[in-house]
Model the fold of this input.
Amino acid sequence: MQAAMGFGSVQRLPTKSYTRKNAGYLYAIANGAEWIYDTDDDNKPFGKGLEQFEYSMNSSRGLRFVADGETNSTIQDTLFNPYRHFGRPDIWPRGFPLEHIKNHDHRDGSYRLCHEHRPPAVQQGIVQKDPDVDAIYRLLHAEPTSGLDESFNQFAPPVILAPGTYAPWNSQNTLFSRSAFFGLFLPTTVAFRVTDIWRSYFTQALLHAAGETVGFVPVNAIQRRNAHSYLKDFNDEICTIELAEEFAARGFWGNKDAQLVVHWVLDLQQIGYVFPAMRNNARSDNSIGNDAELLRNCRRAHVSFHDDLSLNTPRESRAAAKINNFGDLKEWCADSPSVKSKEWYFPTPPNFAMLIFCGHYPKQDRNAHLNNYPDNMDKGDVKFPKLKRPISYIDLSNEEVHEGYFAYYCLAKVEEMKLQNVNGNLFYNA
Done:
């Protein structure tokens, strides 16, 4: 049947290979698909399932992660760890560069909250229980018989990666819109364990040139992993280092894949697929507006999620925790503008989904934790005590808040974040 499809790239695919999924992609595109969901046989929907994805073609809202644009930026500054965003900074996805794991962080100034931006062309859903991690993590943490049993923060919202920001994504729980169909191609000359990873980096570079993006959505699938050798996975992934050297020397993967991509493109053209147009200055889209501009589209924000207090905790204990935590919040707000507070400590009680500071908060540089005062607030003003740790915040200008009279605008911006599993908000204006 595949041979009768008439596609040149399919004729050149190896037999008994995972990459024969390429034939299925072409079949779906030829038959008018607008969306293609890529998955494996050991994954199944969880929670909201496929409804967790964003299906809007024109406009969306929410968080956007922007790579560091400083002139001395490194590769590490352009990376994004989706597991960190969803509350697990101790885990890294398969394909994340190992040399950058230890020092990688999502530092202040990288997030933006946008009232309107283009939806992502590719969306990767987070997987519960046995997420997609590399063989090194599995060898260290997986049980021999049951594998991993990981969970993620239940409140963390979706996030879109702006052009210039990179994260590996896989073929296990991923939704492609039509504008990204060209990037479905799985290379054949690399190890099975890395074919989808190389695809992700290859596709992201092309998507960014077209002004398109990749997004990550909260847990919407669960995996009970099929048994296989973690040591073999490890050997496959180590080979990618050697492949990366060849990748750089030749410009891309093996010569056979370079030729196969040509046939893939010809097949897409034969179908009538229209490639997205390349765009200049795509990275400048959704830039941060002027602080004094009341209708600015995007603004600075920062979020940090951690392990949650289980929903199975007795109701009485949860209620008591909320009362105590609210008392901490009230005390902090009262003491911050006074000499009583030695440190600017923003509590993160385990029973709230999130505590968000709304107000003007200048961007902090990478060494902010070494300063006595937040950047641009270094005049010794006691209203800004020492910053103990990064806080979750939404930047609202003085004009927007108007001395506190319009502070309720914070609630509108919190709604734009699209926090998950939240039934209400407690607003406190000090």
About this structure: Residues 230-250 form the longest helix (21 residues). The chain has a mean pLDDT of 78.
